[in-house]
Write a structure and sequence with these properties.
With 204 residues, the chain is α/β, with parallel strands linked by helices. The protein is 46% helix and 15% strand. It has helices spanning 12-20, 23-26, 31-46, 63-70, 82-93, 132-145, 161-168, 175-180, 185-192, 195-202, and strands at 53-57, 74-79, 101-104, 117-122, 146-154. A five-stranded parallel sheet has the order 3-2-1-4-5, with helices on both faces. Helix 9 (185-192) runs antiparallel to helix 10 (195-202).
């Protein structure tokens, strides 16, 4: 059966962030290019052969969905950002092998039917859900739509990523960052007001 629940919505700061952040071009620049190529290599190794049905949860503007569709997969993209889904729709329309379906939905309430996918990708939602209960809910949804014997691929961020990223970007010289490191996660979020910090500092 299909699932829908209007009461389940992404955190508003996540929506606001992706309404303005150019996620559609991120994987084409800097270190993100390595992320893209490495992820494609891993997916090539672990996914069942095409034309298997793949649900790309948090698929954003369709970078992986379009690539998989071009490999012959039946790909269904789901993302919480209406802007990014429309971007993916436009890109898919010009592809020789378009994405099979595109949906605006929350990772905790997927529109796909039970056991309908040979593979489910959850490569973005987990680090946008600070609550452990919400992360578990998104994984349960992924497994709900996964067929018996299917493959689930998930990506997460270490709880230490905020400190490591801050050191790499020399934020340790910023007194606001140093002070935030000693606060509980919710207070850090309010003090810095940055989605990126919320994502990293709350990752489980």
């Amino acid at each position: 059966m299909e699932r829908s629940d209007d009461a389940v919505t992404p955190p508003p700061e996540v929506q606001a962030y992706y309404a303005r952040f150019p996620e559609e071009s991120r994987l084409g620049f800097g270190s993100s290019r390595l992320e893209f190529e490495r992820t494609k290599e891993i997916l090539t190794r672990v996914l069942p052969p095409p034309p298997a049905r793949v649900v790309d949860v948090g698929g954003a503007a369709g970078a992986y969905s379009i690539w998989l569709a071009e490999q012959g997969y039946e790909v269904h993209l789901v993302d919480a950002s209406p802007r990014l889904v429309e971007e993916a729709r436009g890109r898919s329309a010009t592809s020789a092998r378009p994405i099979a379906s595109l949906s605006v939905a929350d990772a905790r309430r997927l529109p796909q039917q039970d056991g309908s996918a040979a593979a489910v990708l959850v490569m973005g939602p987990l680090y946008h859900l600070p609550s452990e209960a919400d992360r578990v809910a998104s994984l349960r949804e992924g497994f709900r739509v996964l067929a018996r014997g299917g493959i689930a691929v998930a990506a997460a961020i270490s709880r230490y990523a905020s400190a490591l990223d801050g050191l790499a970007r020399k934020l340790s010289l910023d007194s606001r960052f140093v002070k935030s490191c000693g606060r509980p996660a919710p207070e850090r979020h309010r003090q810095r007001g940055l989605l990126y910090d919320r994502v990293l500092s709350s990752a489980g």
